[in-house]
Structure to design on (227 residues):
């Protein structure tokens, strides 16, 4: 697994997710319409800023009535968090009958996860204990909020998952803010921050022209499409 230094992670955390996406595009390592979540996932604590971490993936189900829970999987999840590279970005794919009524993480699980190095959760299902988890400082990226945990079961740990069209492998580096979540390809992860800063400079120069006294339509078109 390709992990970054603390300084490299800090540099990525200082950049918003849309700019990270723009930087990834410059390297042409994946299709521009893949690698990020869409409108089905909400950032529930936008005030927290950027969440960055390595994916620890779990498949879950809380809406199958009377299904038996496997405590061994739950124990394996706790041990996996303890052993995982930090920071951890939990990813729960709900594969149950009714994901829109699921809720797998609340104050208790969030407290445990944060203690073991988690900084956020990404799920296609629901979450709960909104005020309590906000006080903990753990970010929620979820489809919505649900009051009851139903019949929660953890099924598989560290397996490939898909959340809102974003395919995630265990250990993938995820970057998220109020705009959504994106996956940073491992092969370019160490180069993304520098590219993002370059893009910010380019955008600052363009915005200065758009808002400045020398703006013209033809001048904008020349600047936009001259390279």
């Amino acid at each position: 697994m390709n992990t970054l230094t603390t300084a490299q992670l800090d540099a990525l955390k200082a950049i918003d997710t849309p700019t990270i996406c723009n930087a990834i595009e410059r390297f042409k390592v994946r299709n521009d319409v893949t690698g990020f979540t869409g409108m089905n996932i909400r950032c529930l604590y936008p005030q927290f800023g950027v969440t960055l971490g390595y994916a620890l993936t779990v498949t879950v189900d809380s809406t199958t009535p009377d299904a038996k829970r496997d405590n061994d999987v739950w124990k394996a999840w706790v041990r996996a968090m303890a052993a995982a590279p930090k920071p951890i970005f939990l990813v729960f794919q709900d594969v149950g009958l009714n994901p829109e009524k699921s809720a797998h993480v609340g104050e208790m699980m969030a407290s445990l996860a944060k203690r073991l190095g988690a900084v956020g959760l990404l799920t296609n299902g629901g979450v709960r204990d909104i005020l309590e988890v906000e006080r903990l400082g753990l970010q929620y990226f979820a489809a919505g909020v649900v009051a009851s945990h139903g019949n929660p079961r953890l099924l598989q740990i560290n397996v490939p998952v898909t959340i809102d069209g974003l395919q995630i492998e265990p250990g993938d580096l995820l970057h998220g803010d109020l705009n959504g979540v994106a996956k940073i390809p491992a092969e370019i992860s160490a180069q993304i921050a520098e590219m993002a800063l370059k893009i910010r400079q380019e955008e600052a120069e363009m915005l200065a022209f758009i808002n400045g006294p020398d703006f013209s339509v033809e001048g904008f078109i020349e600047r936009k499409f001259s390279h």
Summary: The domain at 6-195 is CATH 3.50.30.40 (Glucose Oxidase; domain 1). The longest strand covers residues 51-61. The chain has two domains: 6-195, 199-225.
